[in-house]
Design goal:
alpha+beta, two-stranded antiparallel ribbon
Length: 118
Amino acid sequence: MELWQAAFIRHGIMEGGTPFLNHRDLYGTIDATPLGDVPWQTFSIRFDGAVPEDNAPAWMKDKFDTWFRDPHLIVKNMLANLDFTDEFDSIPFRKFGADKKQVWQDFMSGSWAWTQAV
């Protein structure tokens, strides 16, 4: 938060503070954001290669849990959220400059978005 605050002050965006009091306030805001009831999922991973008998790093023996929410459902819910109405264009497009070269300006002007359109 201190680094973020320094960046705000340096650029004159917000004197004396950041949008969040501390990391708990930030996480609380994230957790309070409506996601349309997208459930948390989890999976565990562990190293499955050869582990040296002597002085093996701890990470080679540990199990790591990863928690996530389905990104496709999150984006679907974001697009359905009326708070975003008229905030962004959800239609893929292509833009070309005077030199006939494609100009990319945001996600929806990219080749992937264009090829996904039905």
